[in-house]
Design brief:
It is a single chain. This protein is α+β, with helices and mostly antiparallel strands. The protein has helices spanning 16-27, 77-86, and strands at residues 6-13, 30-33, 42-46, 49-56, 67-72. The chain folds into two domains: 1-73, 2,3-Dihydroxybiphenyl 1,2-Dioxygenase, domain 1, CATH 3.10.180; 76-104, no CATH class. It has a five-stranded mixed beta sheet, covered by helices on one side. Strand 3 and strand 4 form a beta hairpin.
């Protein structure tokens, strides 16, 4: 993966069942339950290959409208956040670091 490249997407919504039905009808995606204890989550798949995630709007973000979230690869997450803030952006959630072997 390259610095700054999007590598995953999630849709967050108030009605995950309706979203799964909508994306199934519109783009033909299936959804597979991938929930863990305490976290509802589904994978959208195309021909059996995961393409995006689906989850309820997190409790700390209640009131936000449904949205797509994109995850961007950074070789150095802390440096990327610092640069973002220097250029006028705001980090709303602490960075999450994952090794490449954890992304499969």
């Amino acid at each position: 993966m390259q610095q700054g490249q999007f590598f995953w997407y999630d849709v967050v919504t108030t009605d995950t069942k309706a979203a799964a039905k909508f994306y199934g009808a519109v783009v033909g995606w299936d959804s597979i339950d991938a929930s863990t204890s305490g976290q509802n989550y589904a994978l959208f798949t195309a021909n059996g290959v995961p393409v995006a995630g689906l989850m309820p709007i997190p409790e700390q973000a209640k009131g936000m409208p449904p949205a797509w979230l994109g995850y961007i690869w950074a070789d150095d997450v802390d440096a990327m956040c610092k640069r973002l803030e220097q250029e006028g952006g705001k980090v709303l959630r602490p960075p999450l670091e994952r090794r490449r072997d954890q992304l499969a």
